[in-house]
Amino acid sequence: MRGYPLATSPLYGGKFCGQNANTKAEFFQSVLNIIDEHIMTRYKADWKAVQQWFRGLKKGEYTYNTLSEQDIATINAVSPVTATISSTQEFQAWLKYCMFNLQACDFQTFGAILQGFWPISELNILVREGVISANDAQQAYATINGEEVLQILYYVYRNYSGCSFDPDYDCDGIFNHLDNCPYAYNPRQTDLDGDGIGNVCDDDIDGDGEKNSIGIVDDNDNIIIGKWDDTLDQTPLGERRI
Question: Which residues, 6 or more positions from 73, have their beta carbon under 8 angstroms from its beta carbon?
């Protein structure tokens, strides 16, 4: 995730990786970083208006300082016509313009986040895309909880990733997060030593400290002779009483 200067993002000062509780504003900024390349071609920029606005800025002032060198290079390089946005660099530069020109971009404010604050553009885009609600944007100063994060990430994954989600890698009918051997077929989930690792993928099935070959037994605890290694545990299933 990339952070933002405190001056342009007052609701989040740029400390990541668990240094403080995550605000919704922080998380929403990160979400747009993830999906921008998937949605940018849905938007058009009036580059003539953007360039005129840029030429009116003064170096050293707040508005000018919010632009990165890449933003400036992009604004100067584009053709001064209204065109579909074709790169993430163009998208970011256009959003910088929009944060100071809400009406021109048909954007709105959300609670305490007003024109001139960087998250305003991202919030508008995420609301338009249906990733968050207008109420979410209004509460951008609040701390986000895990359930909200997962709901939004699921929406993003489903609508923008273009991938299919496989919840059962080994096709044994047990979802990965519940499967004690997620990469090995074992619908019975047998676990002789109760260590949370199923017998079919445990390297010490009986928990006696002596290693055995992984995959030495099938789901019915029948020893697979082809995987037997007689240099390891000679009684991988423990001593059985008759």
Answer: none
